[in-house]
Design goal:
It contains three helices and no strands. It is an all-alpha fold and 145 residues long. It has one domain.
């Protein structure tokens, strides 16, 4: 779908954006902007108003983020990462040292909570950036008209 010029038609569905300069926003890495929790279009504006609350619009480029929704995706990815790591470490600690159950609770509950909260925000930002890049869902391209 790319025409070979600098019009970024691959990112705009073949149509140039008329109200902003087409070349004003070069393609950015979804993982770079996501991990930095920045706007997926300009890479400068903050993506979040609160800890997990998306901003209504980008403070830098004005991108409307109101319809963007990552759903349960970030939580699922965090569960699939934190769960096996903590389970493996807990089993290793149990086999190696056999601590009492209360020590497991003191050790693993804060580890699970802290690591889950630490990973949730960047994972949500990456999924929002991927959604923007691929024009998925309510915030992007919904098919031919």
């Amino acid at each position: 779908m790319s025409c070979g010029c600098s019009c970024l038609c691959v990112f705009t569905g073949g149509e140039a954006e008329r109200d902003i300069g087409v070349t004003a926003y070069p393609p950015l890495s979804t993982f770079s902007t996501g991990l930095r929790c920045r706007c997926p279009r300009c890479g400068v504006g903050k993506l979040f108003d609160g800890y997990l609350t998306l901003a209504a619009t980008c403070s830098h480029c004005g991108l409307d983020l109101a319809a963007t929704d990552s759903g349960d995706g970030p939580a699922i990815f965090v569960i699939f990462i934190v769960g096996p790591i903590v389970t493996g470490m807990a089993l290793w600690i149990e086999m190696k040292f056999s601590p009492p159950i209360w020590l497991h609770m003191i050790l693993w509950l804060p580890t699970i909570l802290g690591s889950s909260l630490w990973l949730l925000r960047p994972f949500k930002a990456v999924l929002v950036a991927i959604q923007y890049k691929h024009k998925a869902g309510e915030s992007g391209y919904n098919g031919p008209k």
